[in-house]
Amino acid sequence: MRQTESSRGGGTGRGRTAAGCTLLVLALGAGLTGCAADDHPLSVEPYDAAEQISFNGSVDGGSAVDPDRPLEVVAEDSRGRITDVTAVDASGRHVAGELAADGSRWHSTSPLAENARYTLRVSTEDENGRPGRKVLTLTTGKPATTRRLTVAFGPQTGTYGVGQPLTAELNAPVKDRAQRAVVERALRVESTPAVTGAWHWVDDRKLHYRPKDYWPAHATVRMSSVLEGVKVNDRLRGGASPSLTIRTGDRVIAVADAAAHRLSVHKNGEEIKRIPITTGKPGFETRNGVKVVLGKERFVRMRSTTVGIAEGSAESYDLDVEFAVRVTWSGEYAHAAPWSVDSQGNANVSHGCVGMSTENAEWFFDTVRAGDLVEVVNSAGDTMESFGNGFGDWNLTWAEWREGSALTDGTAQVTQEAARLRPAAA
User: Fold this and answer.
1) Same domain membership, residue 363 and residue 282
2) Which of 69, 184, 202, 232 has its CA 20 to 30 A from that of 54?
3) pLDDT above 50: residue 97
């Protein structure tokens, strides 16, 4: 919102432009003393930029401000201009805003949180270039809203492999990209050691978070939300959500080579075992790509009817399987297959699972945990789905992953600082 030249001169026009805003009026010349002739205007302490403030709410401990009304700071004195405004609450959340090209006014462009205390720092300069400064505080109230948006983080507290994506499940859909950006900025991930990572919107209710590369071994990762009180849209504000902390264990990566019929298991960068395997035969090829261990089942009954093979057909089966490590929800495992030991290491005869001897399957079962990685290479099968059949998140490139964030423009991530202050078009 930029003030026109015709309305800037009079208080009436300015009031009309500011309708619906929480308005701060700064008297830029108030409290000024003249500079000595031989003094440079920038060599003195900043003057108080706003000794007289008109505000249709209250600052510095007064009554609460309506968080549904944007903030606006206006330079009433034509001899000076606003050079910068920052607004941040006690949780460290910055309010984005736009500054008019002529410095006549600043207004917020992102929603305020409810029941929050904000600190505004306003920088100005007078007609001689002498800097001014004013720090204000205000408190927002609680608007009448109909629904609270909460976040459930996952997985559960525990220790996972270095491939484990984080999840955030919303209790209400968020479809608009700008509203998604509000939500995404409020979801915090802190890792020790630190990593570069990003959220990716899987659908209107679910987000996944992963680093650019796998998590470091023996890391601590904490997820939290500062969405409480933040306006998402006219009928939805953030609610309180519990934080969650997980840890990672050793870096365990298993590579199943379907052409070589071999599973190579690596721990912290060192190969610790090679296992003869069999994978999916023609028509039932094992999916290529990176998969994340979803869980382990000591015994599991595997029936062909659950994967679309008719009972009684030549391909039907009904087996009790031991030491099953699940990697897809559709039924792909790495498991004991004593019936195919003669083919393990030289032929692919399974219906899509990675089969191995009972002894090797027990060792693999005891070695891996949820979040560890199983990568299938050189199979004729399709690539593992990115979402919906387990965690195929790592099959997206980093550039593709970041395209799923509401904080990117396709080339670069928008930071809070970049969003905080944008000059308006002249």
Assistant:
1) yes
2) 232
3) yes
